[in-house]
Amino acid sequence: MQETVIDAHNLSKIYDEKTIPVYALNKVHLHISRGEFTAIKGPSGSGKTTLLNMIGGLDIPSEGFVEINGTNITKLKGNELIDFRLNNIGFVFQSYNLIPVLTAKENIEFIMLLQKRPKKEMEQRVQELLKEIGLEDKINKRPRELSGGQQQRVAVARALAPKPQFILADEPTANLDSVSAENLLNIMLKLNQEENMTFVFSTHDQRVINRARRVITLEDGKIVADTAPTAVIHEQTEIK
Amino acid sequence: MLTKIASRNIWRSKKRSLTIITAVSIGLWAGIFMMAFYNGMIEQRVNTAITSELSHIQLHHPEFRKEYEIKYYLPKGRKTLEIIDKDSKIKAASGRIIIKGMIASASGSSGITINGVMPAEEQKLTNLKGKIIKGNYFNPQKTNEIILSEKLRKKLKLNLNKKTILTFQDKEGNLASAAFRITALYKTTNTPYDDSNVFVKITDIDSLAGIPNAINEIAVLLQSNKLLDESQTHLKQKFPGTEIKNWREIAPELGLTVSVGDQMVFIFMGIILLALAFGIVNTMMMAVLERTREIGMLLALGMNKFKIFMMILLETFFLILAGCPFGIMLAFASIGITQKTGIDFSRFSDVYSSFGYSSIIYPNLTSRQFVIIMLLVLLTALFSALFPARRALQLNPAESLKK
Ligand SMILES: Nc1ncnc2c1ncn2[C@@H]1O[C@H](COP(=O)(O)OP(=O)(O)OP(=O)(O)O)[C@@H](O)[C@H]1O
Ligand SMILES: [Mg+2]
Predict the structure, then answer these.
(1) How far apart are CA B176 and CA B255, in angstroms?
(2) Which residue in chain B has the smallest CA separation from A50?
(3) Phi and psi angles of residue A224, each rounded to the nearest 5 degrees, phi first
(4) Strand ranges for B261-380 from DSSP E
């Protein structure tokens, strides 16, 4: 039996409730287990961002609730919720992910610093991750001195550094060329396997979808398909 | 780390940072300099009053200043004056006969104070000679000479070397009057004073007033205003039964000028600081709005509201602190220069002199005032940092990230 990380019950998000209600999410049930590498796809406006925001505790559902590792985060308020995010959830956004005035290293350390981790552990982790993402030589560069793909890799390293319960990524490759996108995805997959890190990401990109082990399709705020198309391919890569 | 981010954020928008730094510099400069200028103005006013009108300490018969009656003179006046003159803390001292009376000419009359003075001693005390703009100081060989102000001359349509009549009550209450020849015209920076003071030799008036050889006022100029309290106490012990008052007690309105002046300075300072605060709040508010996405991202990652608040607060604070050195340097430089050269207001001096202010001002600042200004600026900084920081707290991560 796989350990459950995310459990969303009957999630709905309704905008403009008083005039014409828009169901950005419509009674969604979702179950994510530890170690998954799951893509959420769907046309623009189908509710991908809304769903990720709900399970990441960035927005409050109109109906239903979200449990992370058994904690009902929908009930958490203000700083409680912020602290929960800090200690349990990693985020990678589409762009402008990094703190512009901090270097690559400082950005990766950022969350661990907020968590007040010991300095030694932090140093070690940053070195390890910089190696994983192949940016050991860019350690002291500011975000604007890095390419878009390099910035996204730093963002992944930052999310991963404190070993959260899972990482949410909203269209992490949308602003990248295909080579950088491929590169980022390889890193994510590798970390998924090496650290058994759970990834949930939304995307439009078919090549990215092809690399996922589970694909959830959203349409008009509803899950219309939930499949595992690359399971076979993935097993083959593992054998190699 | 908050400090790191906040201090690096200062240089993100050079234009914005320069705006705030410039505003703080100018505000501080204007504030400090204005306060120093005001101090200089008041000090000048007080100094002028002391060195040309009041002196530091005055001695009278305890009843004299109530009605200015001649019968309340200082019986041992000349002896007292001799003793006082020997004190090393005293720069100059002189005896006078002060009489309230009338001056008349063919075209009118005016109520005045007749100052019967000892020409040589008075010169050391109030520099009457230096105020003369036309004519000559008292001639020891001549009698019944009078010095009056240019203003009074105009008013009474008199002329140099012409005669005028002084009328007053003598010791017994009988009307006395005598003709005096105008030997000189004077002008001070204090118009109301000019309006009501004429000078004659004490020897020309004492017998007329019925108190030959007597004095009803002794004025004392000290080496420094710092010796005021000490010398006053000393004199009181030495001459009991004599009323001994310092300039603050003699002219309470002058003391009031000082305290009102202080309040005015702080009101002006308040206006400057308010303008400054407004500018800072606006600029930093823009900075927060421009960074909505970034703040949303920080909230999403798990930076709590207190830390975000502190980050904006610190950034605003640093910016203001960065402006302080320039402002202080500018202020000290301009005070340093004008302290030596003085600021000449003679072009506007008619307006100023009608309030009794001198036309050259030497700005200066006490360290206490400087500390107060710095504290006020820091308080303003804190106050104006609060609004943008609060604005940042109202952001919602999901909405901010869509921006
Ligand atoms: N703040 C809001 N107010 C009103 N409607 C909103 C708001 N945010 C999202 N919506 C609506 O909710 C629906 C889902 O939006 P969402 O951003 O989740 O879509 P998405 O699948 O992420 O789209 P995209 O692929 O363009 O990012 C859309 O119809 C959108 O117009
Ligand atoms: Mg979206």
Answers:
(1) 36
(2) B398
(3) -105, -15
(4) 343-344, 360-361
Question: Over the Cα atoms of chain B, what is R_g?
Answer: 31
Q: Ligand 2 center to residue A170 CA distance, Å? A: 7
pLDDT, tens digit, for every residue of B194-249?
Answer: 999 999 999 999 999 999 999 999 999 999 888 999 999 999 999 998 999 999 89
**Segment (H or E) for B105:** strand B90-105
Task: Provide the domain count of chain B.
Answer: 2
CA of A109 from ligand 2 middle (Å) equals: 27
Contact between residue A5 and residue A198 where contact means Cβ atoms under 8 Å apart: yes
d(CA A73, CA A159): 19
Rounded to the nearest angstrom, the minimum Cα separation between A68 and chain B is 16
Expressed as residue numbers, the domain containing B38 is: 2-49+255-402
pLDDT tens, position by position, A92-130: 998 878 999 999 999 999 999 999 999 999 999 999 999
Both B77 and B226 in one domain: the answer is yes
Three-state SS string over B46-103 comes to: HHHHHHHHHCCEEEECCCHHHHCCCCCCECCHHHHHHHHHCCCCEEEEEEEEEEEEEE
For residue A4, the one-letter residue type is T
Q: Answer with the one of B207, B241, B275 that is the final residue of a domain.
A: B241
Q: Are residues B215 and B71 in the same domain?
A: yes
Q: Does B304 touch chain A (CB under 8 A)?
A: yes
CB B400 within 8 A of CB B299: yes
Residue A121 CB partners (closer than 8 Å, separation 6+): A112
The yes/no answer on whether domain A4-94+166-238 falls in CATH 3.40.50.300 is: yes
Which chain A residues have a beta carbon less than 8 Å from that of B8? 101-102
Domain annotation covers residue B56: no
| Same-domain status, B283 and B146 | no
pTM as predicted: 0.74
Token couple for A176: 């990248």
From atom 17 of ligand 1, which residue's Cα is the shortest distance away?
Answer: A49
Q: A114 in contact with B at a CB cutoff of 8 Å?
A: yes
Residue with tokens 């504030």: B31
B129/B136 Cα distance (integer angstroms) = 8
The reply to whether B227 and B368 lie within a common domain is: no
**Residue A174 one-letter amino acid:** A
Residue B54, domain member (yes or no): no
Chain A positions touching B1 (Cβ under 8 A) are 110, 113
Tell me, yes or no, whether B37 and B130 share the same domain: no
Strand bridging mode B163-169 / B108-117? unpaired
Ligand 1 first shell, C-beta below 6 A: A 15, 22, 24, 42, 44-50
Residue of A nearest to B296 (CA): A58
Interface confidence (ipTM) of the complex: 0.90
Backbone angles phi, psi at B69, to 5 degrees: -85, 140
